[in-house]
Structures
1.
Amino acid sequence: MLRNRARRLLGALPRVIVGGVHSVSHSSTARAGKGRRSSVGSEALFKVEEGFPDAETFLSLRARAGMRTRSPEGATKGLGQELFSVLLRLEDSDDIVGMGRVIGDGGTIFVICDMLVIEEFQRNGGGTIIMNELMEYILREAPPKSYINLMADVDGFYERWGFVPSLPRSRGMVLKT
C-alpha cells in the first residue's frame, strides 16, 4: 500500500530528473524553477550523481547547510557504509552543493539521512531532486512491509513523498553523544 502510494506521489510530482540508469557515472539535470528565490539567480543548473563525499567535504556541507556538526572520526567511519547516496552538483562548476543518504539493513529498515542543500542554493529544487533519487532507490529495493523513516526539521517537505508524523502512535527519540 505504501509502495503504491509513494509511486503515485512520485508520478504526480513535476519530473525534475531526466531519467536513466542509476550508476556512478549517471548524472541527471534539472533547472531551478522560475520565480524561486536564489542568491545566484533562478537559472541554477544542478546535476545529481550516485556517490558520497569525503569526510572533510561532508562536514563542510553540513556547516554550510546550517546543520549540526559531526565528528571527523564519525564521518570517516560512516561515509561509504550507506545503502545509497547521491551528491547534488552545480552543472557549470561541478561543485557539490547538496547530498542525501539512505542507511539501514537493506531489508527491513531504510533511513533517509543527511538530506541537505547548502543555504545559498536552498529553495531552488535541489532538495526535491535529491529526494526523488532516494525514493526511487527505496521503491526499487525495499521489500514489502519495510520500515522507511527519517527525522525531519523542514515542515511540509517530506509529506510530498507520503511521509506522515508518527505521533501519537509512536514518537521519535534521540540520544546525543
2.
Amino acid sequence: MAENSESSLSSARPNYIYAILSMALALFLLGFFGLLSLQSRNLIKGFREGINILVELKDGASTDEIAALQRKLNETSFVKPGSVQFTSRDEAARIMSEEMGEEVLKLDLPNPFFDILQFNVRSEYIETDSLAGIRRTLLQQPQIQDVYYQENFFKQVAVNIGKLNWIVAVVTILTVLATGFLIHNTIRLSLFANRFMIKNMELVGATWEFISRPYILRAIRHGLLGACIAIAGLMGLISWISSKAPELDPAATMGGMIWLFAGLALLGAAISGFSTFLVVKKYLKMRVDDLY
C-alpha cells in the first residue's frame, strides 16, 4: 500500500529535468542564431573593409611628396589603419608583364601606368555619398591625378547588406517567439501534474501570491540552469568552429558574445518565471471539476 502511494506521488511530480533540457535546447537554438548574427556582421565588416580604393598620382610627384601623402592617408579617419600601400609605375608594369606574358615586353611600348596609392576604407564609410565625399577631398591634394573605385559595386554591396540585415532581424524575432512558445508549453506540461495541489492550496485559504511564489522562484532557477547548459553548448560549438575555421575569430566579437550570453540567461529566467506565473494563475482560476 505504501509502495503504491509512493509510486503515485512520484509519477505525479512534474518532470523538471525534461523541462530544463527543453529550455536549454530552445535557448541554444536562439543563441546559435545570435552567434550567426554576430559573425555575419564581423564577416560583412571584413568584406567591406577589403574593397580597394585606388589613388592615381601625377607624374611630377616626388618620393618625399608621396611618402608625406602616404603618412597623411594613414592618419585620416576614413582610412583603415595599416591598409595604405604604394605601387610604383614600374612595379605595375612588371606585374602586368607577369600576368600577360613576355610578349608584352617584346612590343616595347611606353609604360602606360602611374604611381598608385591603394587603401581600404573603414566599414562605416562604405556608402555611396561618403565615398563621393572622400573622392572630392582627395582630389584637392596637388599630387593626386584621380581616384578610382567601383561605384556600382559599392551600391550593390550596400543593397545586399541591407537585405541581409532585414533577414537576420526577421529570423531573430521569429526565433525569440518560437523560444518563448516552446518554453511556455514545456512549463505548462511540467506543471500539469501539480494542478490539483495548486487548487487544493487555494481551497484551504492560501493566497495566490503565496501559492505562486515557490513555483515562480523554482522556474527562475530552472531557467538560469537551462541557460547555463545552453551557454556551455554554445561555447563548445564556438571552440569547435574556431578549430575548423580560424578566420572566424571569436575574440573579434567577444563583447557581443558576453551580451548574448547575459541576454540568454535573463531571457531564460524571465520567460520561465512569467510562463509559470501564467500557468499557475490559470489553474487557480479554474473550477475543480475543470481540472479533470
